[in-house]
């Protein structure tokens, strides 16, 4: 019995140590990406300027960083930590350049990090480690964000931005979903589930984005 308890303690400690590296990486990469986003605004050429104002690129990075985690709970932590640190890096860099961020912006994106980060992190782990429906749900969250933001860009801000960027982001989201279907999803039912969940997330995204814009205007 003592040996079993000792083995369990060692296993738990090993798992915690195994999760530390990915979380540290998520924090460091998040801070760097947030700072780079702030610097890139107003610097990137018109064709790709929207990259520095795209939540899809942040979500994609959070998803990729969560793939390095050893488990779904660690992936959730990585997803949240990376998005939260992207926000922190962005706000701090903008402040150092004399552009303080509004309360509304910080509140909205903090809530987004808290809600979307763990979902993306667990989704990355499910895609990597789970078969069937779990993998379908895992990739659908990311693809839905990419396609939903592309739809928002084309429907709402196409006149003030480069439409080809949004088309590219939407196509990338579709290609990613197809690649996941070929690689990981098995069976027509599972693929249909992935498509439906992706469509639901993509449909909800523009609505949430518009409400977020209202919140940012209401708060100073």
TrEMBL record:
- The membrane spanning regions, by residue number, are 23-44, 50-67, 74-96, 108-128, 135-158, 164-183, 190-210
Output the Pfam families linked to this UniProt entry: DUF6518 (PF20128)
Species this protein is from = Saccharopolyspora rhizosphaerae
Keyword terms: Membrane, Transmembrane, Transmembrane helix
> Looking at the keywords, is Kinase present?
no
The protein here is known as Uncharacterized protein
Q: Which domain of life is it from?
A: Bacteria
Is Coiled coil tagged as a keyword?
A: no
């Amino acid at each position: 019995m003592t040996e079993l308890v000792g083995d369990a303690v060692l296993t738990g400690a090993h798992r915690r140590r195994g999760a530390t590296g990915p979380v540290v990486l998520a924090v460091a990469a998040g801070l760097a990406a947030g700072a780079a986003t702030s610097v890139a605004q107003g610097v990137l050429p018109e064709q790709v300027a929207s990259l520095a104002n795209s939540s899809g690129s942040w979500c994609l990075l959070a998803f990729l960083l969560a793939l390095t985690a050893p488990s779904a709970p660690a992936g959730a932590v990585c997803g949240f930590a990376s998005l939260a640190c992207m926000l922190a890096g962005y706000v701090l860099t903008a402040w150092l350049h004399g552009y303080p961020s509004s309360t509304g912006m910080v509140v909205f994106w903090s809530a987004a990090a808290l809600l979307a980060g763990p979902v993306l992190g667990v989704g990355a782990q499910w895609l990597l480690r789970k078969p069937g429906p779990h993998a379908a749900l895992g990739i659908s969250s990311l693809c839905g964000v990419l396609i939903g933001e592309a739809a928002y860009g084309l429907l709402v801000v196409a006149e003030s931005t480069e439409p080809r960027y949004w088309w590219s982001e939407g196509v990338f989201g579709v290609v990613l979903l197809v690649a996941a279907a070929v690689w990981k999803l098995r069976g027509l039912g599972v693929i249909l589930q992935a498509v439906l969940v992706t469509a639901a997330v993509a449909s909800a995204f523009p609505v949430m984005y518009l409400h977020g814009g209202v919140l940012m205007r209401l708060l100073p």
